[in-house]
Amino acid sequence: MARLRIALSILGLRGRPKSVLDWIAEMGFHEVELPVEGEPFGLAELDQSGLRDLRHQLATRLLVPISIYAPISGAWNRSSEAEAALERVDELLLRYALPLRLPLVLEVQPLSEGEDASEEVLQEALARLRQTVEHVELSVFLTGPLLTLERMRRFVAETDSPFLGIALDPKSLLEVEADWRFWLSEWAGQIGHAYASDGKSVGGSLEPCRLGEGELPWQDLVEQLQEQEYAGAVVIRADRLPDPYGDALHAKAFLERF
Asked: What SS3 string covers the chain?
């Protein structure tokens, strides 16, 4: 079994930016995901000079950026909201992904229900997204609530674009009463990005928890990803838990077992 590539999102690591980057390097991380907004800094805070300085700061610490993360508001199956979401994606690509030549991970909101929520609008929005990413030749990976992602994934599968795929957040596999292996088999070949997450049911709701302390069988999960020849990194998100630094190190030690 090949060793996992372990990366870390800097999102949620509170402190002075340079000190945070120092800590990441000192703890043995080599690959990082950069957020557009949030602590300790977001790319939105940086102008072109700031982006160049960031590249320098990362390089001096032998840290390699592998992706950019951004949440996208709006339901992609409502016309006005889908239009605003696509405009936001265009902005993210132009301002950050293209200058840094990095894939973009988009966290989408739940799709809407009702008379003005349309599957046709969703398909048109995803078709435009596909055209955009193929034009700029940069990958975009979608993540979000399980059932929303599944509806979007079907179109991604039909288009078979090398630049459009799924970002797996394993905790989301627990959102519905279904075998997680079913979802992974459905998404085989479309997972281009993956997070390290876990969760457990508390009082009828799903709560994030430390990696390995939830309901996901991570040994089986890793084996399934490797059987599907997933070659990307598994990115630790520390912003979802109460002790970002301690929980990031716990997750790193846990993943290093595989």
From this structure: CCCCEEEEECCCCCCCHHHHHHHHHHCCCCEEEEECCCCCCCHHHCCHHHHHHHHHHHHHCCCEEEEEEEEECCCCCCHHHHHHHHHHHHHHHHHHHHHHCCCEEEEECCCCCCCCCCHHHHHHHHHHHHHHHHHHCCCEEEECCHHHHHHHHHHHHHHCCCCEEEEECHHHHHCCCCCHHHHHHHCCCCEEEEEECCEEEECCEEEECCCCCCCCCHHHHHHHHHHCCCCCEEEECCCCCCCHHHHHHHHHHHHCCC
